[in-house]
Amino acid sequence: MQKIPMTGEGHKALDEELRHLKTVERPAVIQAISEARDHGDLSENAEYHAAKERQGWIEGRVQELEDKLARAQVIDITKLSGDTVKFGATVTVVDEDTDAEATYKIVGDDEADVKSGKISISSPIARALINKETGDVVEVAAPGGVKSYEILKVEWV
Known about the structure:
The chain is α/β, with parallel strands linked by helices. It has two domains: 4-75, Helix Hairpins, CATH 1.10.287; 79-155, Transcription elongation factor, GreA/GreB, C-terminal domain (Chitinase A, domain 3, Roll). It is built from three helices and seven strands. The protein has helices at 8-37, 46-70, 124-129, and strands spanning 4-7, 72-75, 90-95, 101-107, 118-120, 137-142, 145-155. A five-stranded mixed sheet has the order 5-4-3-7-6. The chain has a two-stranded parallel sheet with strand order 1-2.
């Protein structure tokens, strides 16, 4: 059973989603199915079929979340430090072609959100940054071609 690395914040978010699905969404869809059954013929009842489809999605997501939480390896990034890039690090890089700076926090797959500066540990840029230090230059295969980034700063925020 392979462990899934995640921050405490990511673990909490998955746990809250699971709780919401079990306590709010599941009872609501059961109620919707019950109401749709009261309308009669189920073979031509679109509300019933939509509610059953929603129920299937909810149950699938509950199983997925329970599996991820069971395999979670929560990493306390407040106890990490050092000059090399690892899981949980906040890294500031500069694109060597455009001189544009960007800051990324390396997080678990389920926590990734590029808009808020969080990139997945399995993303190409994160894989290129791992085990590098301030001043190192990394090359990343991007859709538009190879991009070069220089690491300006490694922080543990």
